[in-house]
């Protein structure tokens, strides 16, 4: 079999560069240099790298530095901005952020030594918005992927997604962007979507086309996850998208020696 | 192709010496992204080594027969076969590109002359057949040596084609494509001891396949919460038991390992055993969870133990004891004081693999891919 020519270099991740340089960015930075750097400066407090203790401080630190919090928020937003977030990275960052926030919140009442520059209320808002962004992103992922699940998964109970038409009262405002438009049912997307697909023939490997009745319901997931708001789709666009999808199905159907 | 390195950590004794036997590929900084190795796997007998890279290619190395005149030299590995396993795909529904990077390769137990392996990227698993051809037939009746068809009316006598030796040719052909069963990124595949089924695991689900059937898979583990806002844990690795075809384990990002028995129910959401070591309060930090995340889990050949790899250590567990591991080996304890920096540059999220050697003495494989 012939080799494929190497592809054009993509932008490498992070700061890992050459042999043995995996710690270059962190290790080589001196403390006096940190203050000169801008937003990326990590003000590593003394109790983090106490040279007397090879392990981290004996007692768990009471308060995290604000820069650690900021760094975590940055990582969270960076992760959410990916077209397809790495779920493991995302949950680890979120859990770490929650730990940091939990340690920062109680110190509002104590003498600020050291006190985070942002008040705990703001930290709460930041995390809430992170949560909202996370939930929005998660809901967006869920929305897009549940559509695929309905097509390809083995018999999967749909009831775990919750009943359709759940009232929107408890949802954060940012989920408004995901509201189902078009032939609106008025329900929020993530839980309502599963119920809408129950009548669709989900067998990918039959040659039947999708039931026409389902066309109207497909407007939101077919918009593509990258858009923050789902524009209204008219009939012509829906038909076009259907053709593309059906055409894709035909192309992807396995054939040849694999069968 | 970028080289990968190895390290060693023998269990119970320091009588093993480790060194690089061979380095394959470019040992400089100028390595194309597509050539970076993303996974390696020995065949069961060790005579073949398969590597997968970010460009979707699989390169198989074969160990040369040991030279009788140099009995003490280890067999060298040379390229045996190269093929393009996965191509980048475009998911039209999500407007996303699916990477061709090979995440895992697993060999099937050898049953004939041909060798089979499973290779997977984020979404699709493929079964490849690797076969040798060292003979070709000559003396066909209906076509001449150039391959041109002969006029049947001109054939006056029949002959039997004879097999003649030729230069060894290794062919790789895709036999099965298992697609469209994973919404999240596949991180593990594991062939069952029944040699008929295998599992594939992504961040939230584990599916069971039959090697002959590509249009259907069964979901056996599902940890996706009803509300994604409640997601706090993902699956990081999964493996079948080497002898009991109904038993599998899967590890999580919180450092726990769950053992499941498929006989208990169709959906193994309830584990049979739960392995977790209590956190040491003296070393607790904000990064405790990240470094406890298990990146690999492997059963011993005996099936009595399993080995897990987290960021700083390798642990050996007795399947009969869930409360704590029987052995813990610190791999790079010196990094513990630098966790903050490693968090900053994302190195703390790197994943390592581990494996047992043939006699179940432990071997640890460090896989930083850009050496």
UniProtKB/TrEMBL annotation, chain A:
Where do the TM regions start and end? none
| Biased segments, Basic and acidic residues type | 1-12, 215-230
Q: Give the matching Pfam families.
A: SERTA (PF06031)
Per UniProt, residues of the SERTA domain are 61-108
Taxonomically, which superkingdom? Answer: Eukaryota
Q: Where is this region: Disordered?
A: 1-40, 154-177, 213-234
| A cellular component term, taken from the record's GO annotations | nucleus
Instruction: State what protein this is by name.
Output: SERTA domain-containing protein 1 isoform X1
TrEMBL record, chain B:
Q: Where are the transmembrane segments?
A: none
Give the GO cellular component terms, alphabetically: protein phosphatase type 2A complex
Q: Name one GO molecular function term.
A: protein phosphatase regulator activity
- For whether the record's keyword set contains Repeat, the answer is yes
What InterPro entries does this protein's entry cite?
A: PP2A_PR55, PP2A_PR55_CS, WD40/YVTN_repeat-like_dom_sf, WD40_repeat_dom_sf, WD40_rpt
Claim: Repeat is one of the keywords in the record: yes
Query: Which domain of life, per UniProt?
Result: Eukaryota
Q: Which UniProt keywords apply?
A: Repeat, WD repeat
Q: Which family does it belong to?
A: Belongs to the phosphatase 2A regulatory subunit B family.
Protein name per the record: Serine/threonine-protein phosphatase 2A 55 kDa regulatory subunit B
């Amino acid at each position: 079999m012939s080799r494929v020519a190497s592809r054009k270099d993509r932008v490498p991740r992070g700061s890992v560069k050459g042999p043995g340089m995996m710690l270059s960015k962190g290790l080589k930075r001196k403390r006096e240099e940190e203050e000169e750097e801008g937003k990326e400066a990590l003000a590593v407090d003394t109790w983090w790298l106490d040279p007397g203790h090879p392990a981290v401080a004996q007692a768990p630190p009471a308060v995290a530095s604000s820069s650690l919090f900021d760094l975590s928020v940055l990582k969270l937003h960076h992760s959410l901005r990916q077209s397809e977030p790495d779920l493991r990275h995302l949950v680890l960052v979120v859990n770490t952020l929650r730990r940091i926030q939990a340690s920062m919140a109680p110190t509002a009442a104590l003498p600020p030594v050291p006190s985070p520059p942002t008040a705990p209320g703001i930290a709460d808002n930041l995390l809430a918005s992170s949560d909202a962004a996370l939930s929005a992103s998660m809901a967006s992922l869920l929305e897009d992927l549940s559509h695929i699940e309905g097509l390809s998964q083995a018999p999967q109970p749909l009831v775990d997604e919750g009943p359709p038409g759940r009232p929107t009262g408890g949802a954060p405002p940012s989920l408004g962007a995901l509201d189902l438009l078009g032939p609106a049912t008025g329900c929020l997307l993530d839980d309502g979507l599963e119920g809408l697909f129950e009548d669709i023939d989900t067998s990918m490997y039959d040659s039947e086309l999708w039931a026409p009745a389902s066309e109207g319901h497909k407007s939101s997931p077919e918009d593509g996850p990258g858009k923050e708001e789902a524009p209204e789709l008219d009939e012509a666009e829906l038909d076009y998208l259907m053709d593309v999808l059906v055409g894709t199905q035909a192309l992807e159907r396995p054939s040849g020696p694999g069968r | 192709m970028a080289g990968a390195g190895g390290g060693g950590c023998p269990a119970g004794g320091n009588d093993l010496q480790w060194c690089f036997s061979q380095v394959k590929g470019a040992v400089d900084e100028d390595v194309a992204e597509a050539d970076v190795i993303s996974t390696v796997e020995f065949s069961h007998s060790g005579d073949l080594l398969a590597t997968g890279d970010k460009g979707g290619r699989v390169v198989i190395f074969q160990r040369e027969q040991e030279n009788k005149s140099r009995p003490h030299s280890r067999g060298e590995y040379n390229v045996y076969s190269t093929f393009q396993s996965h191509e980048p795909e475009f998911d039209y529904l999500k407007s996303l590109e699916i990477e061709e990077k090979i995440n895992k390769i697993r060999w099937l137990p050898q049953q004939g002359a041909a060798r089979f392996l499973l290779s997977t990227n984020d979404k699709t698993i493929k079964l490849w057949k690797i076969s040798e051809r060292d003979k070709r037939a000559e003396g066909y009746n209906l076509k001449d040596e150039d391959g041109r068809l002969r006029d049947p009316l001109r054939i006056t006598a029949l002959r039997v084609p004879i097999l003649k030796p030729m230069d060894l040719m290794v062919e790789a052909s895709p036999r099965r494509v298992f697609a469209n069963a994973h919404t999240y990124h596949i991180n593990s595949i594991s062939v069952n001891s029944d040699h008929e089924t295998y599992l594939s695991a992504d961040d939230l689900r584990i599916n069971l396949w039959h090697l002959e059937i590509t249009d259907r898979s069964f979901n056996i583990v599902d940890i996706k919460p009803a509300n994604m806002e409640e997601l706090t844990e993902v699956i990081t690795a999964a493996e079948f038991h080497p002898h009991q075809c109904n038993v599998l384990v899967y590890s999580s990002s919180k450092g726990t390992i769950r053992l499941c028995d498929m006989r208990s129910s169709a959906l193994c959401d309830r584990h049979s055993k739960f392995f977790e070591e209590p956190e040491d309060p003296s070393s607790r930090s904000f990064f405790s969870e990240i470094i406890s995340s298990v990146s690999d889990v492997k059963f011993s050949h005996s099936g009595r133990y399993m080995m897990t790899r987290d960021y700083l250590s390798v642990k050996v567990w007795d399947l009969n004891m869930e409360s704590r591991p029987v052995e813990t080996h610190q791999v790079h304890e010196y990094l513990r004081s630098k966790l903050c920096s490693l968090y900053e540059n994302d190195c703390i999220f790197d994943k390592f693999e581990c494996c047992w050697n043939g006699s179940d003495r432990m071997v640890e494989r460090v896989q930083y891919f850009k050496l």
